[in-house]
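ok here's Putative translation elongation factor eEF-1B gamma subunit:
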Amino acid sequence: MAPFATIYSWPGNPRLKRAIVAANVNGLELSFPPFDMTTARDESFYKKFPLGKVPALETPSGFTLVESGAIAYYISASGPKAPQLLGSSTSPETQAKIQQWLAHVDLEFTTTLLPAIQMAIGRRPEDEAVKKESLDAVERGFKYLEGVLGENRWVAGTQEWSLADVALASFIETSYKLLFGREWRERWGNVLEWYERFVKEEGVKDVWGEITYKE
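and the structure:
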């Protein structure tokens, strides 16, 4: 049987964690062919994906999709765990809360911290003023998150973990590996407890692998 979908991207793209976890719990097989960013985006690729963006998804029927959030949503909605990942169709409030947190992760956390992350991996020149601004801004988000996770087992207030938890954990993984050491992690104890619990969940742990922290 053909895979549910093929995803084109460079190896280890952290933006794909959402899609991979969603596929895993939904029992959907994904194909990841070798992909070289410098050579694979040829004329045939641009014909399917005019903007040349990755990750990019293609199904056996010819359906194509780009943007990591859209890909994760599509995979989440395409299997039996859709109500858990995206919220039940009978509860628009739950669905909306999950979408709110997906937006928070992208806008309040990932985008805010991106300059500091880029400096940490050598893709942006060091600039202490910009780095400080980035870290100060994301601290506000952590303060809010710490309170939410002190009151809720899962970030969107759901009974089971959702796609919002996957997205948030992907951000936490990157930031705790590259930027935030032990003092920061211990400062936000509820966040750390939630993260270490989430990555041990069925359907998640075999995708996540070993946790690595910056000391």
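+1. The domain at 89-205 is CATH 1.20.1050.10 (Glutathione S-transferase Yfyf (Class Pi); Chain A, domain 2).
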